[in-house]
Amino acid sequence: MKKILTGFILCFVCSFTTNAQTTTQTDTNTVSDTSVYVPESFEAGVDSLLNSWYVKYYVKQQSKNNVRSNIEVSETVYKERLSHLPRIIEMPYNEVVKNCIDLYVNRKSRIIEYMLGLADFYFPMIEQVLDENRLPLELKYLAIVESALNPIALSRAGATGLWQFMLPTGRAYGLEINSLIDERRDPVKATYAACRYFKDMYSIYGDWNLVIAAYNCGPGNVNKAIRRADGKRDYWAIYNYLPRETRSYVPLFIAANYAMNYYSHHGLTPVSTTLPLSADTVMVNNLLHFDQIAEVLNMDKELIRMLNPQYKQDIIPGNSAPRPLCLPVTNIYAFINLEDSIHKYKSEQFFTNRSYVEPEGYSARNSAQEKITHKVRQGETMNTIANRYGVTVSQVKKWNGLKSNKVKTGVRLTLYVNNGGVRKLRT
Considering the domain boundaries, does residue 424 fall inside one? Predict the structure, then answer.
């Protein structure tokens, strides 16, 4: 999926305001290219899916010794079933849609069975966010096409998460990305970001199929296709002018809607998972390691990772800002009751909190600093003294062998103050 930055998006609003034409109904059977581009999340096949940690660990492995025969479905039945789907987004039938449905229910049927199992965990959350944003709930099936519901899916181009955001676009839509956190992998926050993107695109096109196309190739390519199609703003009218991958993107979305609703008509069975039935979130306000949680609460560390994929190093940096921790409901209350104990547990082992470190062999006396004595006046604190001389509280304590930040009036403190380099360094 190739997305653009917010500023780049807004520049297209003007061009469509001036070039908008009335959308005409197009015969969806007139598309000339009916080949199917297999999405990257599906192209590696079942073996790759089975080896991914989130499936290998949380899906109950089931034997499939019986060979399932493909079930032939007539064009009339396909049309009727698609027409009965409760949806706002137009989902017509044609040869390319048929080929995409065949990909899901026949050629990649086992992957769909895994998606059906994982959907019970991810879809309620996605639906809630979509509904809150008053967006079509069927957009949840776009995550099937994008990532096969893998929250840590990483594309060859660098897109990641359920919604496959590129790093610049993720940041443009408010997602935090650094060495410890990648909110593109946070199912909830990434879904909110995807909703904002959908709204931006809908404000430009006013057509959900064009929005979905733009989600894949960016509005620049969609605009180019519209111009080449003499200004027609209908996905099927511009189909042959879109990038090859994007030509299959809307049909794959339609096919995902079909497969996830009519799987039983094709002999498909959802896999059973060991995912928690319900989870809740608590805010963490200090540094916390997954091992501290797992060992104190006697929890499976892999489960904590699965529920909190945004933390790249198993560390929750709650010291910089309050951070969400998702746990099964059965463990939330235990965490709240034992939170202080969890934070203290092996904290020195997991975190080194050195705010000041003096290099080996370095001495303030050998630097361009001058030794002075300061007599503490009434009302002075360690902080005001340190600030006055441009040193740190840790340095003052170290130079004077103090363990506390408290200092008594009248005490003489030894300080090493930068003298502007008047004295030369000693060798």
Answer: no
